[in-house]
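We modelled the chain as a single entity of 302 amino acids. Its sequence is:
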Amino acid sequence: MDTKVSVVIPTFNERDNIGAVISKIKHLHPGFEIVVVNDGSTDDTASVAHQSGAIVYSHPYNIGNGAAVKTGIRKATGDILVFLDGDGQHKPEDIGRMLELFPEYDMVVGERTRGGQASFNRAIGNQVYNWLATYVTKFSVKDLTSGFRAIKADIAKSYIYMLPNTYSYPTTITLGVLRDGRSVKYLPIETQKRKSGKSSISIVKDGVRFLMIIIKICTLYSPLRVFLPVSFFMVLLGCSRYLYSYVTEGRFTNMSALLFTAAVTIFMMGLISEQICQMRFERRSSDRGVRQFSGDINRRES
């Protein structure tokens, strides 16, 4: 490929794994830029990565996996960015398969098989997230939380401000790209067991965080997808309450009135949010067009 590719690897205490990952990438793709972001490791991950031939940037303390990814996006110079974990679970051989799908697609995501999930509980949780994300984006999301992906650099940079500092960055960037009308391709991959150490992701803590990220991104990009079901649920509650009170008391109660009023209020809030969302998109598109036009003029003058 003539396009420059940067491989971004966020790491935290991966001394035993990172060297082999970097060596494999360099063997398969010697021309790729490899950027390792050491997120405050307490072992010698940074020195091992440097000795293996990667460009290393270190955080002074552990900020989070997402923060390391954001640092990698800022520092990488490639036109296409490839993200993968430094624990040896992702196969560098799959990078070439991903890059074959560019420039047709804006982002390519490695889709793990159910057997490739860390645990049965994690697999069930990820499937629930996939269903919710599919509902939000109206696109068949097959692996929302996969950290192995390739994306055009300009698109990744445009989403830095949205990405959290935690493990939920794949969720955010996936929903953002899809709701922004970008093209996404899921590529089936096989993952490997960690060679050493264990995952620091908490099923309960990070699971709740992933769920909140989905809800926040949903309300940011398509508010009615959240407000409308809630409004409809309140209508159903109001009808049920009215039917019960009519049968038992023969009258329309204040609780029924409150539920119907809440349903209308929530629906109207959804409409207002949808309008604000549309105005934000139009402004962002306009600003992007102005920047592109200015860039073209500067290039012509130079």
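As a brief sanity check on the tokenised model: Residues 241 and 256 are 6 Å apart (CA to CA). The first strand starts at residue 5 and ends at 11.
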